[in-house]
């Protein structure tokens, strides 16, 4: 009788603990995804939902390119950008397993030339610090050094020594691509292999991610590749693929929904692919443990009242939602955004890949979580978040127009245009050139081919600047400072955007009189 009761209890528990990935729910999600890409004006998207042992759902929506009819499917390649970070932390975990590395090793033990702005931080920062975004740098600090530039990986890291921290060491979270690059560059010191080769040979291929590549140049030999897109004045336009080789460990992986599904299964199985234990289960758990606490905004608390904590592990973001631990990460490439999610207690995971600079991934993540976790409050996250974004965009536009209306554009330039020409430099960026082109000033960030364009006089010593080859960036301003002798001394560039802080460039004119 006891055996019968225990069996009945176990059946009851299993019935309520099993994943909510029924056929009906998958059809519900499929219909929601299809409607959402139309609502958000997204050309294409691929989604995979997996359990630890099965691909439950994998398909594409829309097209690879707005100008061509080729359809997205589960094998279509997208840039996954910062989802690469978990691959970097995982290959470092392999080296921890092999005894070649400890999480608390100081970075200078392996990169003797590594420096940050503060000598104390330079000496004491550890590999775990690099991987958990607690260096003291603010989010995205220094990204202008590497983005689209011809600086090598080592040059990017060396220039980070001149980035002034915004916080105390280990004081708070500051998302840093350059610190992940630094972590990746430890691998050649220990293995005599590049980060690229080590990730491919020790992680991608053993997992079975056969279509995944680490360089844009590899796409020349491949078919079924999505095209990046962005929005200009509300219209979708194509963007070229931009090489991210010099920031590889932080964001260069290109993959498909099917391949990323295998990656999620590898993590759900705690480092095991098939019969091969690639990295120990202990290391996987360590990567998914909280290291740096993140804030929860008031807006976030109102939208998601069941979320009580947010944190960052090593390559993974962490939070709770509807009583479950959620392990996730997103990635933003110029023209593509992606999201990976693990629900370890449910043995479920999913990935969303898109080929436009759209926030569609965010509501779809929560809709998918609601369905998989059996949330009876089926809120239309797509509509709710779309409304919030529109309100935010409207407020930002009104503020921008208010500021510009208060500036008198009638003040003429203080000097003849030729006086502003020359080379400007600072410790983190070698040269910005201002020259005359057809009787107009023209600005070139010489190490970043896409960051160049005409300067149009706005007021006094401020000029409007636009980079035609970088349509994702709005127009900005270039302001020249005149010294007491009447000579141009400094240049400050300001372009309002969430990714690059142009004011970090303290540009001084060279060859002053």
Distance between the termini: 98 Å
Count of DSSP strands: 22
* DSSP helical segment count: 16
Helix content: 25-40%
Q: What does the largest sheet look like?
A: 8 strands, antiparallel
The SS-based structural class is alpha+beta
Taking all residues together, what is the mean pLDDT? 93
Low-confidence stretches: 1-18
Strand order of the largest sheet: 2-1-14-13-12-11-10-9
Approximately how much beta-strand content do the residues carry? 15-25%
Return Rg in Å.
Answer: 25 Å
Please state the overall shape, judged from the principal axes of the Cα atoms: globular
Describe this structure in words.
This protein has helices spanning 2-17, 23-39, 85-97, 119-124, 127-131, 143-146, 153-159, 177-184, 186-191, 195-207, 248-251, 257-268, 281-287, 298-303, 361-372, 381-405, and strands spanning 44-51, 55-62, 78-79, 229-232, 235-238, 254-255, 272-273, 276-277, 292-294, 310-312, 317-321, 324-333, 336-343, 348-354, 422-426, 429-437, 440-445, 452-459, 462-465, 476-482, 488-494, 507-509. By secondary structure, the chain is of the alpha+beta class. The strands form five sheets. The protein has an eight-stranded antiparallel β-sheet with strand order 2-1-14-13-12-11-10-9, with helices on both faces. Helix 7 (153-159) crosses helix 8 (177-184). 42% of the residues are buried.
């Amino acid at each position: 009788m006891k055996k019968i009761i225990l069996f009945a209890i176990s059946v009851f528990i299993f019935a309520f603990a099993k994943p909510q990935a029924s056929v009906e729910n998958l059809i519900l999600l499929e219909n929601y995804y299809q409607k959402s890409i139309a609502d958000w004006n997204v050309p294409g998207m691929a989604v995979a939902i997996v359990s630890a042992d099965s691909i439950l759902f994998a398909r594409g929506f829309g097209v690879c390119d707005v100008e061509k009819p080729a359809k997205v499917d589960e094998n279509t390649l997208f840039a996954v950008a910062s989802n690469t970070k978990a691959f970097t932390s995982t290959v470092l975990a392999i080296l921890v397993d092999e005894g070649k590395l400890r999480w608390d090793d100081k970075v200078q033990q392996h990169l003797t030339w590594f420096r940050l702005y503060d000598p104390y931080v330079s000496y004491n920062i550890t590999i775990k610090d690099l991987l958990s975004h607690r260096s003291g740098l603010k989010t995205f600090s220094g990204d202008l050094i590497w983005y689209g530039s011809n600086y090598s990986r080592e040059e990017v890291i060396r220039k980070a020594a001149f980035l002034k921290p915004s916080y105390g060491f280990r004081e708070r979270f500051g998302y840093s691509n350059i610190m992940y690059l630094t972590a990746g560059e430890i691998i050649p010191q220990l293995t005599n292999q590049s980060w690229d080769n080590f990730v491919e040979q020790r992680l991608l291929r053993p997992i079975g991610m056969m279509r995944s590549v680490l360089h844009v140049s590899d796409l020349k030999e491949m078919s079924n590749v999505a095209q990046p897109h962005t929005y200009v004045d509300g219209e979708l336009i194509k963007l070229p693929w931009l090489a991210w080789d010099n920031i590889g460990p932080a964001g260069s992986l290109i993959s498909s929904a099917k391949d990323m599904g295998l990656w999620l299964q590898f993590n759900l199985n705690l480092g095991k692919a098939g019969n091969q234990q690639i990295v120990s289960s202990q290391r996987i758990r360590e990567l998914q443990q909280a290291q740096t606490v993140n804030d929860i905004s008031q807006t976030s608390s109102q939208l998601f009242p069941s979320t009580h904590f947010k944190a960052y592990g090593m390559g993974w973001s962490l939070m709770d939602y509807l009583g479950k631990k959620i392990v996730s990460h997103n990635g933003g490439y110029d023209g593509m955004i992606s999201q990976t999610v693990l629900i370890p207690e449910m043995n479920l995971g999913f990935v969303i890949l898109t080929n436009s600079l759209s926030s569609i991934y965010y509501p779809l993540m929560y809709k998918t979580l609601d369905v998989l976790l059996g949330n009876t409050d089926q809120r239309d996250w797509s509509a709710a978040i779309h409304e919030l974004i529109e309100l935010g965009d409207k407020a930002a536009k009104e503020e921008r127009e208010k500021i510009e209306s208060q500036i008198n554009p009638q003040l003429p330039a203080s000097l003849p245009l030729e006086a502003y020409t020359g080379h400007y430099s600072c410790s983190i960026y070698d040269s910005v050139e201002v020259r005359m082109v057809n009787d107009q000033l023209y600005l070139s960030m010489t190490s970043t081919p896409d960051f160049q364009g005409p300067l149009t006089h706005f007021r006094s010593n401020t000029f409007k600047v636009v980079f035609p080859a970088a349509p994702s960036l709005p127009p900005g301003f270039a302001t020249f400072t005149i010294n007491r002798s009447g000579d141009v001394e400094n240049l400050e560039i300001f372009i309002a955007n969430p990714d690059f802080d142009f004011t970090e460039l303290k540009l001084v004119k060279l060859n002053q009189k």
